[in-house]
Structures are given as structure tokens and as C-alpha cells.
Amino acid sequence: MPFSVDVAWSHELMKYNFGPGHPMAPVRLELTVRLATELGLLGESDVHVVDHGMASDAMLTTVHDAAYVAAVHAASNDGTEDLNRGLGTEDDPIFAGMHDAAARIVAGTNGLAQAVWEGRATHGMNVAGGMHHAMPGGAAGFCVYNDAAVAIAGLLAAGARRVAYIDVDAHHGDGVEAAFWDDPRVLTVSVHQSGATLFPGTGHATDTGGPLAHGSAVNVALPARTSSREWLRAVDAVLPEAVRAFAPEIIVSQHGCDAHGKDLLSDLDVAVDAQRQVAQWVHNLAHEVCGGRWVALGGGGYAVVDVVPLVWCHVLAIAQHREIAPLSPVPAAWRDHVRRVLDHEAPELMSDAAGEVGFVPWQTGYDPDDAVDRAIRATRQAAFPLLGVDVSRDV
User: Fold this and answer.
1) What is the pLDDT of residue 210?
2) Histone deacetylase domain spans which residues (predicted)?
3) Residue 67 belongs to what H/E stretch?
4) Are 258 and 301 in contact (CB under 8 A)?
């Protein structure tokens, strides 16, 4: 199959808008797509920008309860709040057209997953996707419908036997984990700030899957102020071995970039360059383990100028095998647009850490006095034996 990348995009996705002042501002998407265009990432012949339309209720109810989908319709059409289902809260206020906007995100991710699974695309990316907090029966954490979970359910229905979901958002990927908690066909790996100090309060190292799926959930719960070097050490210590042991047929990954030090909704300190490096690792794992089948999603990220567009354009470039050198200049036209529209001085480079972030691999040894090392070890000790990975050297 010739190499190709599908990008799910339509300006209709900008209608996912909780209103003025809400952190999940659609300008995140507009600036990302504008920067991608200026960087030439949407104009190549092997890149296909696709509008997948809107997910049907039948598609949504492969994960979500029918009563919840009906409640979203009611909220969307009539403004009917349902606080028991998370509709009308501070995180998820109701807005006109809520159902349609959220269903478009789902359709985009599901369409990409099916295209990659069927071999019509090598990789896929949906910057509007990654709504990982939505639960089967309710909205949560800015997420109405869980596009990643619906896409994974679609892959299983299409015949996939093992799907790996990787989540590097600062917040635990709780909704996807919950949807497949007792399904041994799905591995969820989430690297996030500890639930002891950050929403949603879940994702502990000892959370390793339900009775029928022990080892299907891998959670790395990091302390506040974890640095780029420490974060990379944690990802490297857990992700490759877990994915290789599970041997998925396709990877779906969520690249929420709210782990950055400039993000106001988390307490981590992870540079653009480190997040770019992890995207490269995920891409490499997809080629190593599952024939390149990879679907990448956006997610959280609220530093809407300095971080989000840069990180997601790096992910998109990696998916296209057109890696952007970190010290490449940010296009002047994009910076001028940001200055004119937002009165903000945008970054000059596609990097904020001089291009590279080093780290010390886990294999060098465990330091019991280091909080990040203790978090890594807790995850490896809890989850790895269930995946058949030897942790006898973790002392």
C-alpha cells in the first residue's frame, strides 16, 4: 500500500465551543490547522484532509448509554440540563448544537481508525479528538462523547484482536480505561499527573484492569512538577515494554499537551521538545509492533499559542514522516496572525528546550529517594508481571 496520512478536519469541528472563558477554546484548533498549513503539512499529495461527517446514534451507543445520548440531544436542542449525567456543569456547560459538534469529533476519529485498519491510510490524526474523560453514561472534564473509545470499539467490531491505547495527557485517560476495563483485547497505558493532586483523581499504579482483563491497564501516576527529563524517563521505562508485551495490531494515541509548564490546568513541567520525542517513540512503536497502524489524537492543552499548535504540528509532521527540526523557525505569517488577532507574541522556534531533552534510562538503576522513580517502580511492579514482563531487576 502506498504511504498516506489521513487528517480528520472540517471547520464544523470549531463548533465544539463551551463559550467565552472556557479553557477548551476552539481557537486551539484554528491556530493548529493554520500553523500546519503554513508549515506545508496539509498540502502534500500523500496527505488527505477528510471530513467524516457526524457519528450516528448507533455508533455512539457502541460505548455510550442510549439514555445518555438522548440526554445530550435534549441538552443540545432544548437546553435541558442533566447534572447527573454531567450536562450543565462548570466543566461541561450546555451549548446549542452540542450533540452535533461532539458527534463530529467521534466520526473523525472513527473514520481514521477504520481507514488505517483497512489499509486505506498508513497513519491518521484528529487534532480535535482525544476526548478521553467522557464516560459511557456521562460527560466529564470538557468531554461530551469519547471519540477514542468509540473508535476502539469500532476496531474490535471490525476484527481487531488487540488494540493499544496510549495517553500522555497530564490528566488520566479515565474514560477510555473505564470503557475497556474488563476487556483483555484493549491495553490502556496512561502517563499522567497523580490523581492525588489533579483531576480526575484516578489512575493509580495498582489500577491494572478488571477481573477478566488483569494487566490491561497500565498507569504511571507522576508527582507534581515532574520535569521533561523525568517525564521522558517515566515514559521510556513503561511504554515500550508494555506495548511490545501486548503486541497490538493497531495503536491509538492521545497527545494532550497540557503537561507543559505553561499550562494552567496541570502541575507538570514538560517541554514541547519532550512531547515531540514521545510522539516519535509512539510512531516508532507502531512501525515496530503493528505494521505502522497508528491513529494520533489531540486532547487537552490550554496554552493555546505557545504550546498546543507546536506540539500537534510536530505530531502531524511525524505521522507524515516529515519531521520538523525543533530549531526550525515558526512561520512569520502565523506569528503575524497571532500578534494581530490575539495581541500575543508567538514563539519564534518550533522548540522551547534548545531542540533536545536528555534523560537517564530506567536501566541505569532505581533511586528509592526519587519520587518519580518510586512512581515508575510502582507501575512496573503492579502491571508488568500481569503482562509477562520480568521486573526482577527493579530493586
Assistant:
1) 98
2) 22-317
3) helix 66-78
4) yes
Active site residue 133: yes
pLDDT given for residue 58 in this prediction? 98
CA 306 from chain centre, in angstroms, equals: 18
Write 368-375 long-range contacts (CB < 8 A, 24+): 371/223, 372/222, 372/223, 372/226, 372/230, 372/233, 372/234, 375/194, 375/205, 375/220, 375/221, 375/222, 375/223, 375/234
For residue 393, being part of any structural domain is answered with: no
Cα angle at 233 between 231 and 235, to 5 degrees?
70
- Partners of 165 in the β-ladder: 188, 252
Q: Is the residue at 248 inside a domain?
A: yes
Q: Which residues pair with 70 in a beta bridge?
A: none
Secondary element (H or E) of residue 329: none
Q: Report yes or no on 394 lying in a domain.
A: no
CATH number of the domain that residue 213 is part of: 3.40.800.20
Q: Indicate the average pLDDT of the chain.
A: 97
Q: Give the type of residue at 304.
A: V
**DSSP code string of 68-106:** HHHHHHHHHHH---BGGGTBTSSSS---TTHHHHHHHHH
Chain segment 4-63, per-residue pLDDT in tens: 999 999 999 999 999 999 999 999 999 999 999 999 999 999 999 999 999 999 999 999
Residue 72 lies in a domain: yes
Q: What is the pLDDT of residues 273-300, one digit of tens each?
A: 999 999 999 999 999 999 999 999 999 9
Q: Which three cell numbers mark 233?
A: 524517563
Catalytic hit among 123, 132, 133, 314: 133
Q: What is the pTM of this model?
A: 0.98
Strand stretches in 230-283, DSSP E: 250-254
Q: Domain of residue 96: give its range.
A: 5-387
